[in-house]
Amino acid sequence: MISPVRTITALCALCALGALGAALTACGTPHASTRIVNATASPSAASVSRPPTLAPGPAGLTPVFEHGLRSRTDKTVALTFDADMTADQGERAAAGERFDNPELIAALRQLKVPATLFMTGRWVEEYPIQARSIGRDPLFEVANHSYSHHAFTEDCHGLPTMAPARMRADLERAYRVFREAGVSDPMPYFRFPGGCYDSRALRRLSASGVTAVQWDVTSGDAFATDADDVVREVLDGVRPGSIVVMHCTRSAAPVTERAVRKIVPALRERGFRFVKVSELVGTTAARAVAAP
User: How far is CA 239 from CA 244, 275, 276, in A?
Assistant: First the structure.
């Protein structure tokens, strides 16, 4: 087995198997990256022609982005929401379980908070109208969380493990589903299911041109029952340039909307400005290009 590029403690994966779902409550904070990767193009070209991405890592591996610049003068923070639904949860959805969270999206719109939503292709298939509405709203950007939400490594919080030969196809299948649902301009950003990856997974996705987006603040909203606990986790962890991981999944993250309504004004009082992941990537890439 290939050794991991770096070890992270990932968010609670939302598992397809009902018996395992309740067990996925062990959340932690991943190690923040200290590596700044060169930009793929000049800042002006990136802003005009396409969303900013990072250059491949060592040996051409898919680059991994965990947080933006730690600026004292521009305190930015990106709220990200994983819209998780695995390929195996169709029966549960048909029985009435809700994997969406329209109240959360309404709260973000009411609060005028830019956000990045990482959707699985299976989630988009289940909620195409919501996905299209989010994707066409300039307040949001949509990114890729795989089609199946199966793990790209072994031993990833009980998630089923994907065969290496299927990894890139699974990512590309999600983008096809986005297009079929009418999601406008999905971003070239990818979040590994469960946050689990290793050098083999990074190599398998390298030809896709995506930047893998992790996080440096775990909200703990998966399976949480007390919104105030989530609020404390986020407020205690956020620093300038932080990426916060949360969920847009009503059944498995039922208090997220209430937590967001407290987190947003508290961070604004501290001088933070909410941005999409693309802005964090762009400013980081621009700094890398400008560095001697």
Answer: 10, 14, 15
Supply φ then ψ for residue 78, to 5 degrees.
-110, 120
Letter for the amino acid at 217? V
pLDDT in tens, 71-95: 999 999 999 999 999 999 999 999 9
> What pTM does this model have?
0.85
**pLDDT digits over 96-114, tens only?**
999 999 999 999 999 999 9
117 token code pair: 């939503």
Of 275, 234, 276, 248, residue with least CA distance to 107: 248
Whether the CB-CB separation of 20 and 13 falls below 8 Å is answered with: no
Whether 152 contacts 174, CB under 8 Å: no
Three-state secondary-structure class, residue 217: strand
Q: 227-237 and 256-269 helices cross at what angle (nearest 10)?
A: 40
